Structures are given as C-alpha cells and as structure tokens.
Amino acid sequence: MEEKSYEELWELLDHCEKGSDEEFEIYKRMVELAEKEIGKLEDEGDLLKLPTGEIGCCVPDFLDNYAAPMDNLAQIYVKRKEYAKALPLLEQVLPIYRTLEISDPDYTYQRVYATELMIECLKELGKKSLATLYEYELKFLKSNVLNPKEDQK
Fold first, then answer.
1. How many Å apart are CA 96 and CA 138, to the nearest integer?
2. Residues near 123 by Cβ (< 8 Å), separated by ≥ 6?
3. What is the mean pLDDT of residues 26-50?
4. Phi, psi (deg, nearest 5) at residue 49
5. Distance CA 75, CA 72 (A)
6. pLDDT tens digits for 101-147?
7. Whole-number Cα distances in Å, 10 to 6, 14, 25, 99
8. pTM, whole model, 2 decimals?
9. What's the number of CA atoms in the CB half-sphere (13 Å) around residue 101?
C-alpha cells in the first residue's frame, strides 16, 4: 500500500468492502501510524496550570482515533483465530479507553467490548489466571459502572 496519511486511510475505509483484505491492510497501516503518534505523547504530557495554581492533566480526545483501528484490527485477528496478534493491540487499547473514560463515561462500553476480546485471547493462549483477573474487572464494569448508568435513564 502506498504511503498515505492517517486521514486518507480513514477515507479509504469508507470505500472498501467490510471484512476484505483491503480493510485488513488499511487497519494494519493505521495501527503502525498510531503507534508512532502514541510514542510522541511520552514527552508532551498535556499538563495544564489551573487558575487555582494546581496542575491538571488534559485527556486528549484524539486518542480514540488511535484506539479505534487497533480495536478493529484486534477484532479481525480474533475472528481469524490469530489471538497472539490481537493481544498486543488490546493491551494498548485498554489503557486508552480507561484514559478516555475519565472525561467521557461512554467509553466504558468500548472498554467492556475490548475486555471481552482480551479475555477470549487470554483463554485461547492458555493464560487462564490473567483471563480470570480480566473477567473480574469485566464483572465489576458491568455491575457497578454500566448498570447504574442504565438505571439513571
């Protein structure tokens, strides 16, 4: 695939067949670009000085642009039963969703779906103990975070 920008890759996704090899390759390239951009965050740190003099941290909402292709590529790998390839993507996606969830609780749903995929991968790769810990987190999310939100509706 010729060198495309992240935005151009998003546009290509709108014009390719869902589940195709082309879609798969686009997601792979998007993940490569996202990993480079995430690496740049290490030095930036988005700290803000608040009027009170305290230092606050801004949650960069653009992180979802990086999480989405990783999440989608992980889903494709799981469908192909390539769990070892999906696992590192999910390991990156989950902290992004946790971070985004701080300022937007709707990301809890994304975190739940990614956690379910993580559990499936861990079980398939024989990592039962770690899968159990993620299952515990998933139960907590579903019972204490999602259900109270739905009760308020």
1. 16
2. 131
3. 72
4. -90, 120
5. 5
6. 888 888 889 999 999 999 999 999 999 999 999 999 999 988 877 76
7. 6, 7, 12, 23
8. 0.76
9. 15
